[in-house]
Design brief:
57 residues, mainly beta, two-stranded antiparallel ribbon, oxidoreductase activity, GroES-like_sf
Length: 57
């Protein structure tokens, strides 16, 4: 049986936007997820909220 490799995808800020953000200001990165060690847990983010006040700070 083939072992499944967990992959992590994340959006990264590639360049700071000047004005409204454009798609080229971001890039999608993907890499392997490390296996948790003894006493560690692996969590999956299902929902994420980024409030405007956090961006403005």
């Amino acid at each position: 049986m083939k072992q499944q490799t967990n992959r992590n995808r994340r959006w990264v800020l590639a360049s700071r936007p000047h004005g409204a953000p454009q798609m080229d200001n971001f890039r999608l990165e993907e890499d392997d997820v490390a296996t948790p060690g003894e006493g560690q847990v692996l969590l999956r983010t299902v929902f994420l909220s980024l409030d405007l006040i956090c961006v403005a700070a």
